[in-house]
Write a structure and sequence with these properties.
Layout: H1 8-13, H2 23-50, H3 80-84, H4 98-118, H5 139-165, H6 170-184, H7 196-201, E1 202-204, E2 210-212, H8 215-242, H9 251-281, H10 284-318, H11 325-363, H12 372-399
Antiparallel strand pairs: 1-2
Helix pairs in contact: 2-4, 2-5, 4-5, 5-6, 5-12, 6-9, 6-10, 6-11, 8-9, 8-10, 9-10, 10-11, 11-12
Length: 401
């Protein structure tokens, strides 16, 4: 079926026409984003504190954990209230952690940075399908900005809960596994590394026209999910045999592992089913969304399988649990936004950062154990911002072009 598909290179590298923002406009965007981000940071503080404790993030309202008094709205303004009250409760004078202030500042700064980059001319985060859908500036940039911010907030909450409790709550990872493919398809971030989904979704007929085809993509996706399901008995045997002593897996651990794999497989089915529908629809902009969604699926599978296989092989080789399953669940939604190439860069970047940080800690005999999740988040941020020029540099270095 000749679906009138857009040029692959135009789909990947083309950008919606947009006015570049000058210094004044850019500063205004960043300032507004910082303000909004600080309010989001206040809510993320609640998530970081309550999610690991299995508490609701909406009820009860914010309160002082020393005297139990509900914090009034005028004492709950981000940054300002903490500074006015000098980090103490108005009623009992108990100190509030400075981390509340620092996270509000961090989230505000991250929101401002993402907004600045998303609205920069020709930035690869732009929603590449939006031009064909008739959306003019600033909607493509706004959609891309909102999607990337969801990822950024997910990373921030995950990092701090992992640092505090050595866990990344399932409420975060499982919900993002479901939502991330569709959110990532609204941006161009996962297409910035090149050709991978294009040749799986398009072929050239005898007349030189591009024809939509989803057979190879569906084959790869289906084989990946079948492999995961078939590997469950092997994984059970590996972790049961080689994780001994204090690290021995209980029956509940095996059940949780199996449930996590089944959840991920189920989360991948809807986007895999939607991709051929979008490709066959005929409209070029819908096909562009389909290509982005396919790339998100492949990125998620690459993120999951890379750590999943490393965990199995490492556990068998070193006779101890080599990879936290929470990290596997964490990297999968990140892969949606980075694509299968970008997520592997993030994995290697995380390993490098972990080595750079870990060696001095070992030399100074630090007993502080830092989980791998924060390193994965740092690797994802590095790739999201600088990954494309790094990729082109490496391609030029290896292939001389």
């Amino acid at each position: 079926m000749n679906a009138g598909a857009p040029s692959a290179r135009a789909t990947v590298h083309g950008h919606c026409a947009e006015p570049g923002h000058g210094d004044n406009e850019g500063m205004a965007v960043a300032a507004i984003a910082f303000l909004l981000g600080s309010f989001v940071g206040s809510f993320l503080n609640v998530c970081i504190h309550r999610l690991p404790r299995n508490e609701s993030v909406v009820h009860p309202p914010s309160r002082c954990y020393s005297c139990g008094t509900h914090v009034q709205w005028y004492d709950n303004l981000p940054i300002v209230s903490w500074l006015i009250l000098r980090g103490r409760c108005r009623w009992c004078d108990a100190p509030f952690s400075i981390r509340y202030l620092l996270i509000e500042l961090l989230v505000g700064a991250v929101t401002a940075a993402v907004a600045w980059l998303a609205f920069a001319p020709s930035h690869p985060w732009s929603a590449l399908w939006a031009d064909g859908a008739g959306l003019a500036w600033p909607w493509p940039q706004s959609i891309a900005c909102a999607s990337v911010l969801v990822l950024a907030y997910f990373l921030i909450v995950s990092v701090f809960t992992d640092l505090d409790h050595m866990i990344i709550p399932d409420e975060l990872t499982k919900s993002m596994q479901v939502a991330a493919p569709f959110l990532a398809a609204l941006t161009g971030a996962n297409l910035a590394f090149g050709w991978l989904p294009i040749d799986l979704l398009m072929r050239i007929d005898g007349a030189g026209s591009r024809i939509a085809t989803v057979g190879p993509f569906l084959t790869i996706a289906a084989l990946s999910l079948v492999f995961l399901l078939a590997s469950l008995p092997i994984a059970h045997r590996v972790y049961d045999r080689f994780c001994t002593g204090p690290m021995a897996w209980r029956k509940e651990d095996h059940q949780g592992f199996r449930a996590g794999v089944l959840w991920f497989v189920g989360a991948m089915v809807p986007p895999i089913v939607v991709v051929p529908m979008l490709i066959a629809w005929g409209d070029p902009w819908l096909q562009a969304v389909g290509v982005g969604l396919a790339q998100a699926v492949l990125g998620s599978l690459a993120g999951w399988l890379s750590l999943y296989v490393v965990g199995l092989l490492g556990t068998a080789a070193f006779k101890r649990n080599a990879m936290g399953f929470g990290d596997v669940k964490f990297l999968a939604p990140i892969g949606c936004f980075l694509g299968p190439v970008g997520v592997l860069y993030a994995f290697f970047a995380a390993a490098i950062v972990g080595t750079v940080v870990g060696i001095p800690m070992r030399l100074f005999h630090s007993k502080r154990e830092i989980p791998f999740g924060p390193y994965l988040a740092i690797g994802a941020a590095i790739v999201l911002i600088w990954g494309v020029p790094l990729h082109h540099w490496l391609v030029g270095l290896v292939f001389g072009r």
